[in-house]
Amino acid sequence: MPVRVSIKPLDWESAFFQRRCGLIELDGEVPLSDSLFAGYDIVQAKVLSQQTAELDALTEQGFRLVEGEAEFVLGIPSTGRPEGIRIARKEHIPALRDAASGAFAQSRFRAPWYQPGDSGRFYAQWIENAVLGTFDHQCLLAVDEQGKMQGFISLRELPDGRARIGLLATLPEAQGLGVGQRMIEAAADWCRARRLTRLHVATQLGNLPALRLYHRCGGVIERTAWWLYR
User: Fold this and answer.
1) Catalytic site residue 229?
2) Which pathway is recorded for this entry (predicted)?
């Protein structure tokens, strides 16, 4: 039975990267074929790990594996608000952009599909938007006793009573100081204040420090998936 799909234009990404980008949706009505890709520079597909028939069909159409992804769900424990957490403000944007541009250099927006530097620009813009409350709704900072930034986390409230972590990064000089766990605790506090019941986060399968962090914080893997590009 042929795999049936549709393609969703990714307008924001297309404008940002100056390349026509689309996303395969696997619940469409059109059989997967070369003709669907006309006019696109990059077509992305996110396929659950158990969708082996779809994975095989996309591979036959020239799609290449980019990265694996694990999605965690975390409960909202009734712990107190952690110390050393601040709401990011506009004056923090330059430092946040610089940190984000280096923290996610090996993301799925890397070469050869995108230009060198595109990944850094993308995540720098993402964290700026989070400070401004667009896409993600808030950015929180972890700081030391002198107020120096140690890490950041962006959060988005979903319409069904859940929340999602967008970006989370610990600065290199703060590695090993428990900053990641403190930011997860801050995210839980943010959720409690909004009566949100679950916190979701996705990370690369190759990002072992993040996988360990979310497991240590009580996260349960909800699903795994593969990103493929053509």
Assistant:
1) no
2) Bacterial outer membrane biogenesis; enterobacterial common antigen biosynthesis
Claim to verify: residue 100 and residue 13 sit in the same structural domain:
no
Average pLDDT on 189-209 reads 95
**If 0-12 CB within 10 Å is exposed, 13-18 middle and 19+ buried, where does residue 131 land?**
buried
Q: What is the pLDDT of residue 208?
A: 95
Number of Cβ within 10 Å of residue 205's Cβ equals: 15
Residues 40 and 133 in one domain: no
Q: What is the pLDDT of residues 154-181, one digit of tens each?
A: 999 999 999 999 999 999 999 889 999 9
Phi, psi of 65 (to 5 degrees): -65, 130
The annotation places the binding site for acetyl-CoA at 207
Tokens of 114: 């995108």
Residue 108 lies in a domain: yes
Beta strands 42-48 and 21-31: pairing type? parallel
Is the same domain home to 33 and 143?
A: no
Report the candidate in 71, 12, 24, 2 with the shortest Cα–Cα distance to residue 228.
24
Q: Tell me: do 96 and 118 sit in the same domain.
A: yes
Provide the whole-model pTM: 0.92
- Using DSSP, state whether 207 is helix, strand or coil: coil
**Binding positions:** 207
Could you tell me if residue 48 is inside a domain?
yes
**Residue 188 sits in the same domain as residue 80:** yes
Active-site residue, from 40, 114, 123, 214: 214
Owning domain of residue 190: 73-222
Q: Are residues 55 and 125 in the same domain?
A: no
Residues 97-135 have pLDDT tens digits of 999 999 987 799 999 999 999 999 999 999 999 999 999
- Asked whether residue 228 is assigned to any structural domain, the reply reads no
